[in-house]
Structures are given as structure tokens and as C-alpha cells.
């Protein structure tokens, strides 16, 4: 593990954001590890530290705006933008589609970094990337605190997470933790 990976994992574990046990994920699958990045954002000092580290991963890029999908990317986009000294926006769903609301906009040619707390499938990030490109922005990269995709997330631009999270996942019928009688927890913000 590199130093950033180790430090990120240590901070997230200490704050209770990275948990081990038996969890039912939003997908319905079961897992032995769970990430609740919202626990990070309860702590401004640690949030600033990790978002600053993420900003440094893109220090070689000229960035005009940082954007994130609601809800996980809202605070993160703000903190990364603050570290870079640039503007931030966030996209949110309206009628099932990601959109820029609240007067947010990007100008054609603006260089945008997209950030998200945890990337699993990357679906929300891909929607934000498409939205920004449709507005004429140049997406220069995607950053996240945690990559839970197993290295499969592809956004067509550089993707730089602070930490890769290895976690076993099973369909409920195949879950060894269920077979062993370990109680399952359904954390998170969405109901299955």
C-alpha cells in the first residue's frame, strides 16, 4: 500500500466510515466491508486533509471548476475546490436525470474535475461527466476518496482515487456470512 492509501484507510477506519462486518448493499448483494463516507464529512479537519490530498493528485492539471454528484460529492466538491482555489458546483437529480440547478453552470471550454466520495459502478459520475460535456466543458479527470469498483470504473479520463477498497461481495443466496448466521446490517442512504 502506498502512503496515501494507508493514511486514507487509517482516517476512515478511525472515524467509523470504513466498517467490517456483514452488510446488505444497495445492490442487494452482501459484503464483508462497508464504506459510509458521510462519517468523514462530520469532521472538517479530516475532510480538509483527505480532500486536499485528492486535489494534489490533480496538481498537474489546470482546473477551473470542481463538480460532484449530489449527495456524496457535494461537500467533497466544495473541499477539493477550496484546496485548489477554484469554483465548485454540484449536479442533482431532477426527473431522474442529473442536472445543474440552483443557478450552477459551466462555460464552454472550462476545465472541470469531477469528484465523488465512493465509486462502485461509477454510474452517477458518468452522468455528471456527460452533463458537463454536453454543456461544452472539458472534463480533465475524476477523483474519489474510495474506489470500490475493483479497478473496473472507466470514465474516459484519468481516474485517481485516494484508496482502493477490497471487499468481498456475494449474492444473498451465496453469502457465507448468512450461512454462518451472522446478522446482516443495511446501512446507507437508499433503501433496497
Describe the fold and architecture.
Strand 6 (111-119), helix 4 (123-134) and strand 7 (138-147) form a beta-alpha-beta unit. The protein has helices spanning 3-14, 44-57, 72-84, 123-134, 176-179; strands at residues 18-24, 30-35, 65-69, 87-94, 97-100, 111-119, 138-147, 159-164, 169-170. It starts with a helix and ends in a 13-residue tail after the last helix. It is of the alpha/beta class and 192 residues long. The strands form 2 sheets. It has a 6-stranded mixed β-sheet with strand order 5-4-3-6-7-8, with helices on both faces. It has a 3-stranded antiparallel β-sheet with strand order 1-2-9. Helix 2 (44-57) packs across helix 3 (72-84). 29% of the residues lie in helices and 30% in strands. The chain is globular.
Characteristics:
single chain, 192 residues, alpha/beta, Rossmann fold, 6-stranded mixed β-sheet, 5 helices
